[in-house]
Each structure stands twice: as structure tokens, then as C-alpha cells.
Description:
Blueprint: E1 8-12, H1 22-34, E2 39-42, H2 47-50, H3 60-71, E3 75-79, H4 87-92, H5 119-136, E4 142-146, H6 158-172, H7 175-182, H8 209-237, E5 242-244, E6 246-248, H9 263-266, E7 274-276, H10 289-306, E8 310-314, H11 333-344, E9 346-351, H12 378-392, E10 400-401, E11 406-409, H13 412-419, H14 431-444, E12 449-452, E13 463-466, H15 474-485, E14 489-493, H16 512-518, E15 520-527, E16 533-537, E17 542-554, E18 558-563, E19 572-579, E20 582-587, E21 589-591, H17 593-606, E22 615-617, E23 622-628, E24 633-639, E25 645-649, E26 653-655, E27 661-662, E28 665-669, E29 674-679
Parallel strand pairs: 1-2, 1-9, 2-3, 3-4, 4-5, 6-7, 7-8, 8-9, 11-12, 11-13, 13-14, 14-20
Antiparallel strand pairs: 10-23, 15-17, 16-17, 16-18, 17-21, 18-19, 19-20, 22-25, 23-24, 24-29, 25-28, 26-27, 26-29
Helix pairs in contact: 5-8, 6-8, 10-11, 10-14, 11-12, 14-17, 15-16
Amino acid sequence: MKERTSFGHGGDYNPEQWLDHPEIIAQDFEYFKKAHINTITVGIFSWAQLEPSEGIYQFDWLDDVFDRAEKQDINVILATPSGARPRWIAENYPEVLRVDENGQRNLFGERHNHCYTSPAYREKVQTIDNKLAERYGKRKNLVLWHVSNEFGGACYCDLCQNAFRTWLKQKYQTLENLNKAYWATFWSHTYTSWNQVVAPSPRGDQNLLGLNLDWHRFVSDQTINFYEVEAKVLREVTPNIKITTNFMGGNPDDEHVFFDLNYQDFAKHVDVVSWDSYPSWGTDAKSSVELAMNTAAMNDVMRSLKHDNYMIMESTPSQVNWHPFNRPKAPGMHRMGALQEVSHGANAINYFQLHQSRGSSEMFHGAVIGHDLRDDTRIFKEVSQVGENLNQLQPALNTKAHQPKVAIVYDYDNMWALNDVRNYAAETIKYWRTIQEHYRYFWEQDVPVEFISTTDDLTAYKLVIDPMHFMMTEEFANKLRAYVAQGGTIVGTYITGQVDERYLAYLGGWPKALRDVYGVDPLETDTLYPTQQVVVADGQKKFQAHDYATVLSVDHAIAIANYASEWYAETPAITQNQYGNGQAYYIGTRFDSDFMVAFYDTLVTQLDLKEANLIHKTDAAIHINVRLNEQKIYYFVTNFSDEEKTITVNTPMRDLLTGMVISIGTYDVAAYDTKVLVEEG
Ligand code: GLA
Ligand code: ZN
């Protein structure tokens, strides 16, 4: 990718739907100028137009798109077309069609549902990718490869089952190891040959928890492997063009939005992280503050994957067509959401879609240009304003998000394992929601957070929060212990350290490293009904908790609060342990937010995690995020509520978006407004 000179603004464009309407394509490009569109993403789902029958190519229409874009200085992100396939491939090579978990092969249809293992599909994809790279690799406005589209799902065909067996053989070497890992003696499920191993299925096994987890891991690896097949061709032909694929963020308010593929692994294979962001800003809630927090978390997740800036590859200018209620964004919300993403490190705001498709399932999904073909709609104007704002933000282009001192660990194996637990309660397990609850405090206080994997370096952070780490390797337990020994602070919770990476229970109590560092041994965990509460008292105050309560035996920690109800009343609910130069806190139960605020307030003060801010707010609906470089700090101040709020500015500042210089004093921030303030001078 060439050095960026401005924030990206554009998105998915499918002119192949309009080839018999050249006047519409011409008008689209005129409109792009008006909306400050500087990037188009083309080629997604265009395979049937690029290769209408096997080996017969037609690129003239795409040449024309590149020419038009070049004339008006628009960058092109070129997608490989593998996310949807032409009918002839399925006809000529039925193996490309995905097989479902019951073993039934799909008919041709839909998208994103090919077999990732099929040699025929891989070969056909490589051939078309190679043609695209050869033809467009030298175009000076080609800035990025967009491989396929929103990878996801699994195939259960014989080719995939075989690949799964090969993957398992590599991992376990012997059947004996596999049998031990899966505890296969249970229910007489011992494997006596590798051919007996099949993926989990409703018609077969779904209760070998180790197998379920390995299948998840395999599907993730095999998808990345398929991506690599595509990336290999692109790297060979166009070594200077960076490569991404669009990760899914769904509606960041949902609990299970990005669970299927291990993006922490996947991110190592892309040059830049990009993702598709569809917060339901037009929601049924009175306030969008909760959603703003969840969307902030998702942006931080995506930034944290490479600890670097990222791109919004898709977002809607108004409504989508797949939320339970597809409400358009109210005036101002689109700009608010876009600037929020920039404030977290997004360097591009792209849309799905630039021009609304005239028919088929997404015909009424939000778009920059709608069926009215007008450039004076509310949506068009709001998009243009975002484009204008992004131009005004040009001085902040090469800034990075503030380096967080707080990290929250999340782990895919753990997520998959927790989603499959047969004890506790499926309804309340809520791993991601729990992480959001910890994140909430820091978001409200404008303290930046990094989301880290178990392989990240912990020593870069002053505080590491590791909630519900049910499946934890001994290696990571040792890492936590070493981190605390050298001076770090950790916060762990109930349902931690129960099983190893094979999904086998730890024997003989908690792993030694966890016992050392936390100074406790969790004995049992009460799973409460959603209507039940447990009370915790810390001497002066009482707090309510719910869902889970772990009963502890204390080795050498100090109890800082005890349970005050249930049969475990008077026993420790929260403990603190000094280990080496650091501290380890264990929170035994799931608290409401009043406790979290009290708890983290103390820690944040002790660890000095709050930066002295030049801007003060009086309301949690205002969020202040910082992007900075060596010279300047840019304060993104957003009001996520539907009411005007105020901030106090302690030094003269300039608002990049209005050019106004503001002196020390109190200022109104209108509902959904964002100010980008930088110190004057
Ligand atoms: C996804 C897909 C797009 C489109 C949008 C609709 O993100 O990648 O092709 O279907 O959803 O919101
Ligand atoms: Zn398959």
C-alpha cells in the first residue's frame, strides 16, 4: 500500500450490476467527488462478470472502473472474488460446494459457503487471483488487496474430514494421545483408527468436548490456510501491495459477534487489520451510550490485534437489513460513529455500499447513493460531511491511539471452551459480556485499554485483567505469575484455571502457579439462578452480586471482602495477594457496576493510571479518546447521548473540525457531536 496521504473514505462498489446503465456509473463517479469519496472497493462478488465461463475472462468493465477512478484520484481496493462463486464452478466441480454438519452437500446458492479444502476451488481461485494481480498490479491507484469477504463457517465434506485427521495427526502424533486428550474411554468412545475420527455432528458426537474444541481450532486454521493460498499468489505477483481481509464485527452490541475464527491468529497473516462495523445506532434504547461503549470495545479489540491502526472496511451510512429492527441512524449518528472509530485508530471509513443494489436481498440496505439517484438526500449529505471531516482531520492522519497501560486478556480457546461448558449455566456464562463489564469502567473514565492474547507481552502494562479464564494453559499461568513477581498487578475472577488446553480438568486443585500468585484455592462455584443475588460486604459497604460465586480457601492472600449471604457467608469473596513485587486480586463473584467502580477507582489511583487531562467532563456520556504523535495530542470529544452536555477546557485549543479556537472555559457539546481538539500553538 502506498503511503496514505488522507484518511480513506469510500467502500464497496459493484458497478458490474450496472453495466447496461453507463449513465449511472458516470453519475456515481460524479457523486463520489461531492461526497469526498477517495477509495472504492471493487471486485467483491464479481467473479461471474470477470470469468463468465471457465477460462473465458472479461476485464474491460473493470479496466474502465480503474480508469475512471484514476482520473479523479480515487484509490482502488481490489477484492479477490472468492467470497461468492459463479454457477459454472459448481457445475464443473461439485466438490466446491460446502457439506453441512449432517453430511449433506449444499446445492449451488448463497455466498461464503464453499469448501475451503477443495483443491479444485483453491486452484480456480488462484487462477483468477493471478489474472487480477497480473492485470491490475501495476495500476498506480491499486492500494490494497481485499481477500475474499468475511470468512466464516465450516465444511464437513470428506476432503475437510481428511484434512482434519491430518491436522490431528500432526498435533497428537499417536491415537493414544488423542484418546487421552479427549478422555475417550468415557462412553466407550475410544478410537482404534484415525479413520474413525469425524467432525462433531448432530448425527454423531457432540459431547467429546476436546473434539469440539479441536474442530473449532481446525476450522480456524483451515480458513487461514485458504486465505494463505490466495495471499501467496498476490504476494508473488504484487509484493508491494498490502493485503487484508475484512474481519467481522457484526453489531458490537451482540454477545457472539466474532467467535468463529481466531482473529488473534488470523491477524498475523494480514498486513493491515480491517473489519466490518455495524453498530445498531438506531436502537430501541433511549440512550446510545451503552452501545457506544460496546462499539468502543470492538474497535479496541480490532486495534489490539496488531497493536496498530486499522481500517473500517464496511459500515452503513444509515440502516442495515439484518438487524432485528432496521432503523436508520438519526441525524448526526453516522458522523458520531465514524469519528468514534477514527478516535480509536481507524484510518479509513468505508461503507457497504456506495450504490444500493437495485434488486435481491440487500436492495434496501443503506447506501451512499440510493434508488432515488440523488445527491441531496439526508444520508448523502451526512456522508459528505464525514468525508469533509476526514479531510479536516488530515493533520492527525499518522497519529496512533494512546498506548494503554491497562490490558484485558481474552482468549479464543477459552471462549470456545466456555461456550461449550456443560456445567455452570449456558444462559449466564457470558464471557464477552463479562469482559465488557470490566472494560466499561475504563471507558467511562477515558482510560485506554488494550485487548491482549495469551501470547502478548504482559510487561508492557501496569494492570492486566484476566476475567473467566476457564481454560488456561500452565504456560500462561506461569506467565501471570512471572508478571506479578516483577511488579505487575493482575485481576482474575471466578471460573478461572479449571481445565488445560485439551479440555481436561486440572487435578489436585488449582495449578500451582495460580495458587502461588493469587494465594487462594477456589473450592467450588455456586451457579445462581438469574433471579438470585448474593451479598458481599467489605466492612463498611454491601454489594450485590449475581450468577456465580466461587468459594475460596485462602492460602496466604488477604480477604478484602466476604460473602454476607448463602451458606458461604463469612468466607472470602475478594482477595488480594502480594506476590514478589506485584499484586494479584481475585474476584470470586459477578458484581454489578457499583462494585466495579469502587474496586477499579482504588486500583486506578494506586497504579496512577489516569493521565492528567486538559479537558474535563461531568458526564459519562461524553467520551474523550486520544490519538497522538510525538508533537501533538488530538482529543476526540464525543457526546454519545441525545442531550447537550458540557466540557471544561483547561488550556486554549483549536477544534480541527470547525477551525475555531476556544479559550479556557466551559463549552457545550451538542447531542451526537464530536469535537477534535488540539492544543493551540
Ligand atoms: C457484510 C458483507 C456485505 C454486506 C453487508 C450488509 O458485512 O460483507 O457484503 O452483505 O454485510 O450489512
Ligand atoms: Zn470441504
